[in-house]
Amino acid sequence: MKLLQDRIRQDGVALNGQVLKVDSFLNHQVDAGLTMEIGKAFAAEFGAQGVTKVLTIEASGIHFALATAVALGVPFVYAKKKKAVTLTEDLYTVPVHSFTRGETFNVSVSKRYLQAEDRVLIVDDFLATGDALLGLQEIVRLSGAHLVGIGAVIEKSFQEGRAKLEATGVKIHSLARIKSMSPEHMEFLEEESLTPVATK
Q1: Does residue 51 sit within a domain?
Q2: What is the pTM for the complete model shown?
């Protein structure tokens, strides 16, 4: 997605070869127009898959999941990192390690909102180590729903996340794939998708 790549080049800040700050336009202060374009891009990629739910994890994936859900005309659900007092029903819960925070969270989704008949698209802001996306994938598996694919806004292709997800056979689509980065330089890979998952 050239619009996104250009914005990362313009306003993204690579602190080093591993950490990219995009908090001026994606995950602290948010460019709403760009976010809606990101949702349209995911909808264009996965719209033929019969998606019934978009799934993400709080908090940085929520606005991208919302934009995608709006473009697809379906609800979105986000996995919660802390159990609220109002969350009293049965839950799907899995541990997820956060690369950026250096912590492991138990994330939960109510069984009421993810069921076996659903066709789920997972959307998140970053694909790096893949741990958060693997956790969401496990929640989909526990629910019995069908995972149609994973959309990542930004992928750090030099980290191991894609290989972990690729091993599961899921379709992955990243809008900006970073090959390498440093405070002085940013190099992108071309957009591509992996082999699609078989549909039911």
Answers
A1: yes
A2: 0.90
